[in-house]
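Protein in question quoted for reference:
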Amino acid sequence: MKKSIDLVRQLVNDFKTHEATYLASDYQEQEARKDFIDKFLIALGWDVNHEHQKNPYEQEVKIEQSVKTGKSQRRADYAFFIGPNFRDPKFFVEAKKPSRSLSNPDDYYQIIRYAYNKKIPISVLTDFEEFHIIDCRFLPDIKTALSRKIEDFHYTDYADEEKFNRIFHLFGREAVEKGSIEKYAAELPKPKGKGVQQALFKSGFLPIDEAFLVKLNDFRLTLAKSFKKHNQELESEELTEAVQRTIDRLVFVRFLEDKGIEEHAIEKLAAESSAWKAFVNLCRSLEPKYNGLVFKNHALIDDDKFVPPEEEFAEICNELADPSSPYLFDEIPISMLGSIYEQFLGKVVHATPKRADVEDKPEVRKARGVYYTPEYIVRYIVQNTVGKLIEGKTPEEISQMAFADIACGSGSFLIEVYSELLDYHTRYYSAYPEKTKPGDTQMREGKVVLSLKKRQEILTSNIYGVDIDYQATEVTQLSLYLKLLEDVTMNDAYQYSLLKEKILPDLKNNIKCGNSLIGTDILEGDLFEKTEERKLNPMNFADAFPKVMKRGGFDAIVGNPPYGAEFSDLEKKYLFKTYPVLKGQPESYEYFLYRVLELN
């Protein structure tokens, strides 16, 4: 502690001695970072210059060089982690030049937006002259951004031991390792007052996952009612699928925009004479480039006879458009998006002859809600199954392995499996560059990254999923596509377009809509009507995944087996006959566990 405050007091003296120079408009942010902010953070115990943490994949301080994409900078200047978890930042620091007042809505909104989308409760805005601690727990809104300041310090306060202590014991490296950020955030009160509440969105006091779920549900209800109003002939299943595909496209396009892979287009749609027609044309223009399920021609919403809800759709585009949207689609963790969609899939559109509404699925009503596996449990399971199985293997050996979730839902487990495989391949090629084949990797900012081609190969060679719900399989594919594109740049996409190659691989052989427990032999004897057969959706794994099953089955099956599923009398009879080892009245999860043993 003494060494730290001595270093900071020296910085304070240096700044004070030449204050006029440092507060001049021509003294830039990069200079302030190098002369003062970096050194201040080092005094807090962080290895800012990576003098000790040389491995670029295991550094607790990630530094951005203020590179801007489109209209705004896409990442905070400093992100701080505690190893061995280098995925989830603990807090951000955004740097500015000292001549500019920190107390302005734009800079506050910027740092709040970064942190909120990563589910980080507090972060810092500083130009060294001042140090502002900002509450980032709630939905970003530029109108109320300045009210999120928790505490601020002037640079002369740093020399005061008591005041510096408050910073050191909150943001110091050792303190953060011991949970200082989480403890501090837990003690923060929620904002109060009608004025504050009215200024925020409906979901203002919710964390990112809950707020985004509320927004998606609002969009779904609006689109369902509007689609039905203008197209009275549509039934429940058609509406559910049409609304799902529309939302998937909007989310995917916004992701491409925020990644800088595509130009911003959603914000321009509302200005068109027909926002919907412009959106359909946009998706048609993207389909040849991206392929995949997202932009594939849809029999309903891409039909010229479909009557769109122009006003409502334009408003949705306005809400999602950057920079008005509080959501940074390239920063929302794909795993978090999976958990959001898991709950989103718990509802369906129900249509009557004249109107439509959104309601819980019967199984969700019975279970009194959707229960999804927390991310830390998903990560633990995958690391101790897939992670252990691939340890020490070469990429060539791994390419012959198959990992599945046979009740994949929104794809949370498959996203984590894919992440584990991507991380392993990146570390392997970094450690053994001589074993890298041409086109497998590229260098970016001094680090080895997997090429788009290699990311595609890993996805199609190793990842498999099944779900009886078609919407779930669509969302799983969407989530995996987003993960595939997570480290892809505009240049990567441009190079692929030059080569006339598809950016997204076809996952029809990897992600199947079917019944993991019941095979097509149940259809023998013409006992089912066509509608019942479609609902039952029987599937044979040997037919669905012939290559995998010929190799002896899956190397690992991960997931959360469905609990409490209801079966018809005929299904029960089939299951009793097919799984005689299970006695009494087995729960649905028991059948899934037994099925897993058969498929491994």
Q: What stands out?
A: Confidence is low (pLDDT under 50) at residues 66-72, 194-203. The chain has 27 helices and 16 strands. The first helix runs from residue 2 to 17. Residues 373-599 form a domain with the Rossmann fold fold (CATH 3.40.50).
